Amino acid sequence: MKTKNKLIKGTAFINGKEVKGRKTFDVINPATGECVIAVTDLSVKEAEKAINVANGAWSTWRSKDVLERSEILRKWYNLIVKHSTEIAEIMTMESGKPLNESKIEVEYGGSFITWFAEEAFRMYGDQIIAPNKGKQIVTMKQAVGVVAAITPWNFPLAMVTRKVAPALAAGCTVVLKPASQTPLTAIAIAHLAKEAGLPDGVFNVITSKDSKGIGELLSTNEKVRKLSFTGSTAVGKVLMANASSTVKKISLELGGNAPFLVFDDADIEAAVEGAIASKFRNSGQTCVAVNRFLVQDKIYDAFAEKITQAVSKLKIGNGLKKDVKVGPLINKEGLEKVIEHVDDAIGKGAKATTGAKSLDGLFYEPTVLIDVPLNAKIAKEETFGPVVALFRFNTEAEGINMANDTEYGLAAYFYSENIKRCWRVAELLESGMVGINEGAISTAVAPFGGIKQSGLGREGSKYGIDEYVEVKYLCFGLG
């Protein structure tokens, strides 16, 4: 695929240099099936060099003045903004998401860099009152060390910056393994980080198709002090078990099964608008995308009619084309899972009011299913596609129980105009994040993360930098 985008590079980035391997793999545009570029496919042994480099760079980076680290992060952000058009184009080509969504992600991803550039100054310790006058007790926060970050394909920029930015701000060095489907954005911004003045070896990007081998390396290597992973719960459990061998600090952002409750006192028009925002971003391929729409009986039919109308108007196609709202699925496996879930639901009694069919390539029509039974696969498994599945409930208690009937607890949403109900439901939903009359909840200033089998730790907000530091306690004897 020919392009004039100079930020598209097919090499890994280690110690501030482009690194070629003996093998390569193709990065495919899911909208067209074309190869964007062949990328270096590092072996585990080759990737291990990046850990050694990061470990060697750590002492110098952590000893720099916090002002200098913060200024480098700000320069990095400014360069990303300067090249926002090229970066957005890269994201759309490698992930398939509509170009407008990619542009929004550049802004969103960049916000983590500016946020943590400031948080670097707020790694406050404490003075603790000692039990007797003969001692003084204080605490300080220090960088944990070499950080391994493993990121998914669905947000090629934001998933990187919300791990890398706090790590760098805290004084850590980073080895990043981006998803093999979408490594190009990570490579591009790593080059921009070097241009911003980030010292060689502080931020390294390893590219490889050997996800299992690289994952094992990063989760077991004793020089890696912290592992941050975003991806499936199944893989997260393996990495967590591996990390226990060296007792690493770990944070995991895993799978979800987000409920979206619409109560009978909701503003239906607003609920439909929020439903579209929370469901169809990146064609439903986001960890906080709604998987189950739980609608109270009294307004079920009205909501089903209105959301069917809204979904049927969504334009599907190549994300580089104007006005496209829904792009392709990332790969054949993703498409097959959507088909399986829809066919299973219909086979068990659900009805499609729009969509429910695949198109050429990796495209699937935006779909609405009504009267979905609770024994359908889509009720328990994350679909990761452009499908609205509607379930009925009667009472508030029943709706809450249905929402919580899952092993996951990442995000949840609900709509109600009753302030008392809003407080009740928000407290009772078993989820790390709750959108109340709001379908778009992600922001750098708020803690992102889940409970139950949706993960450990938080990203973003004032809590995000704590994932990359250790608290040291100092006791001064005054006698």
TrEMBL record:
Gene3D superfamilies, alphabetized: Aldehyde Dehydrogenase, Chain A, domain 1, Aldehyde Dehydrogenase, Chain A, domain 2
GO process annotations (BP): gamma-aminobutyric acid catabolic process
Cytoplasm listed as a keyword: no
InterPro entries from the UniProt entry: Ald_DH/histidinol_DH, Ald_DH_C, Ald_DH_CS_CYS, Ald_DH_CS_GLU, Ald_DH_N, Aldehyde_DH_dom, Aldehyde_DH_Superfamily, Succ_semiAld_DH
Keyword Oxidoreductase annotated: yes
GO MF assignments: succinate-semialdehyde dehydrogenase (NAD+) activity
Domain named Aldehyde dehydrogenase: residues: 23-473
Keyword terms: Oxidoreductase
CDD domains named in the record: ALDH_F5_SSADH_GabD
Protein name: Succinate-semialdehyde dehydrogenase / glutarate-semialdehyde dehydrogenase
Record lineage: Bacteria, Pseudomonadati, Bacteroidota, Sphingobacteriia, Sphingobacteriales
